[in-house]
UniProtKB/TrEMBL annotation:
SUPFAM superfamilies: SP0830-like. Gene3D superfamilies: SP0830-like domains (3.30.70.1280). This is DUF1697 domain-containing protein. It holds the Pfam family DUF1697.
Length: 182
């Protein structure tokens, strides 16, 4: 059985660091035996179909191939269509009423657990808010991610220790769910 996945690469093509052309990423994924490979934007999203592996093994395989080919390490999270659609469908904020830049999802490699965020004084950041989902954190930042004090607070290393975390704006969240839907 073939499943369609999205690979989310963390921190590539940002500020001139870890340059990874999307055409080369597509070629790399095809070389790993994946089909229907497409990329979205330049910031590290690829969609592909695969009949082997699971999310974790596919992420590890791609990370190893990138290191071998490009000489740098990249954190990779792979998620299937059902997961990506559920993330979009279960947004706790009124996504249809917000601009894409106001709503973000941080995808985690594993469930972060509410206790990680117990020290965050949520009231100190209002009107910004966050809510946890399935291996994800939804962030409402009315002035955008670049101006978000809550985003800075949530990115502290101790809150994300032992996890891969990568954030996408709402437009990308929706697009990846669509692209993996066939």
């Amino acid at each position: 059985m073939t499943t369609t996945y999205a690979a989310l690469l963390r921190g590539i093509n940002v500020g001139g660091n870890k340059k990874l052309p999307m055409a080369e990423l597509r070629t790399l994924l095809e070389g790993l035996g994946h089909d229907d490979v497409r990329t979205y934007l330049q910031s590290g999203q690829a969609v592909f179909a695969s009949g082997h592996g699971d999310e974790e093994s596919l992420a590890a395989e791609l990370a190893q191939a990138i290191e071998k080919r490009f000489g740098f390490t990249v954190d990779v999270i792979v998620r299937d269509h059902a997961y990506l659609k559920a993330i979009a469908d279960n947004c706790p904020f009124p996504a249809a009423e917000l601009e894409g830049k106001q709503l973000h999802v941080t995808y985690y490699s594993a469930e972060p657990g509410e206790d990680r965020f117990a020290e965050v004084d949520r009231s100190a950041y209002l009107p910004e808010e966050f809510r946890l989902g399935d291996r994800a954190l939804y962030l409402y930042a009315p002035d955008g991610l670049g101006r978000s004090k809550l985003a800075v607070g949530l990115s502290r290393p101790r809150l994300n220790k032992g996890l891969i975390a990568t954030t996408r704006n709402w437009n990308t969240v929706v697009k990846l769910a669509e692209m993996t839907g066939g």
